[in-house]
Amino acid sequence: MIADQAAEQTKLNALEPTVYDLSVPGRVGANLPACDVPTEDLPTELLRDELRLPELSELQVVRHFIKLSSLNYAIDKGFYPLGSCTMKYNPKLNEDMARLPGFAQLHPLTDDEGAQGALALMYALQQWLGEIVGFEAVSLAPAAGAHGEFAGILMIRKYHVSRGDTQRNKILVPDSAHGTNPATVTMAGFEVIELPADAEGGVDLEALRKVCSERADEIAGMMITVPNTLGLFEHNILEIVDLVHKAGGLMYMDGANMNALMGVVKPGELGFDVLHYNLHKTFSTPHGGGGPGSGPVGVNAKLKPFLPGPIVEIVEPAQGDEPPLYGLVMPEQSIGRMKAFHGNFGMHVRAYAYIRAYGAAGLREVSRHAVLNANYVRARLMDTYKIPYPRYCGHEFVIEARLDDAPDIHALDISKRLIDYGIHPPTNYFPLIVPQALLIEPTETEAKETLDEFIDVMKKIAREAVETPELLLNAPVNAPVRRLDEVRAAKQLVLCCRPALPEAGD
Ligand SMILES: *Cc1c(COP(=O)(O)O)cnc(C)c1O
Predict the structure, then answer these.
(1) Is the pLDDT of residue 223 over 60?
(2) Residue 68: which pLDDT band, with cuts at 50, 70 and 90?
(3) For residue 134, what are the contacts with CB-CB under 8 A and spacing of at least 6?
(4) Which of the two residues, 2 and 456, has the higher pLDDT score?
(5) Which of 117, 284, 339, 485 is the most buried (most CB within 10 A)?
(6) Ligand 1: which of 84, 232, 278, 440 to mutate, judged by most atoms within 8 Å of the beta carbon?
(7) 288 and 334 share a domain?
(8) Which one of 88, 180, 230 would you pick to mutate in the ligand 1 pocket, going by the greatest count of ligand atoms within 8 A of its CB?
């Protein structure tokens, strides 16, 4: 086994020489013309004695990075049922729009008059996002879902404080919540009251009633995901909203799962006060790898004065043939800026293009198909795997990946084996309230044949788990790297390749 691993590592190293391994002293990648201006010495305090850079030709560099990039798995390469993440196809049209020079090269310090096209786009996006969720106003400023959550909870805090209601310091969070929810609550200076789930996978109403009656004066609000992270619609949502409002709290909806609801349910009409969107999930802007996201926040009239800025408003209405004049403004009692400039504008362009291309009816079809696809896969896997809450799901569903006849097999082994079949694993071990959880979200953009192939592979893996469990326990074997020691990898991060060049003075 260890010999195997060593051999594997050798293979891997052979496959992946670092740029330092390829380096040849004196080789250059650029051919610059002779300098035709007087040269100046750089300030010596900026110079290092020794900067060990690899020396390579341009072609070697291109091949090296293209080879590395092709080792990455991506939605453009294969099925990616990563629950809670909505890894849907990102239409290439959106990329073309985001690269239009008028958008891509617009300097963020351009004055409003010189940026009317971009501001008109942002204004329309604010309006459409508000319409989709039934909210009065939207700020595009936050740069990710978690950033939107933080903005939302700061708004809730400012709302209470502005009314002189300063003793409320608790936010209710269901135990199925995404980890960012309790983290946001804590960062915003509140404390979490965790609510248990009931047998149906929803919020335990009895527990909520009890907290709301006993601790009403402490409750600033509640954060809840709909459909929740088990993929289940919260049947008692109206009653939950009502209980929290009667206790004096505000309702925050984590909108990361809007892919199940577009054109079907408007959270504003359910009574929510504030919500964040994940443009990089629902609205198809690319994500993963820590790239730019966008997490706008929508609010009702109560919270509108507190929105993070800037937001786009019409400062002079349209007159005759003249279009309106748009301007960036800070709302009266704004919680302030979330980041420099105006949010991740490239993401706004992509989401705008996506919404325009689909239109209202198309977005409703998106959500209906996302829900249909998830229910199709769920129904066809129900005989093979344990499904802890056996009712219709939203856009995703959770499996309890324990097989009666294969006690040594865990969710992780199933996931690793999926890699051998060329499929990205589902989300592992989340939500936390389901043991051996695999959270599966097929999304609407997959063809039925792809879903069928995934289902067949999942059934095949269940058979292998019983008949040839070593195939799962040793997986993956067909990936560029074998199973990693994930704990060690997280504790001893290696973030750059190390030079294998001779040390100075060698
Ligand atoms: C993805 C997600 C978030 C956080 O969004 P980021 O954009 O990753 O910060 C919050 N809640 C839920 C339910 C999510 O799925």
Answers:
(1) yes
(2) confident
(3) 266, 267, 268, 269
(4) 456
(5) 284
(6) 278
(7) yes
(8) 180
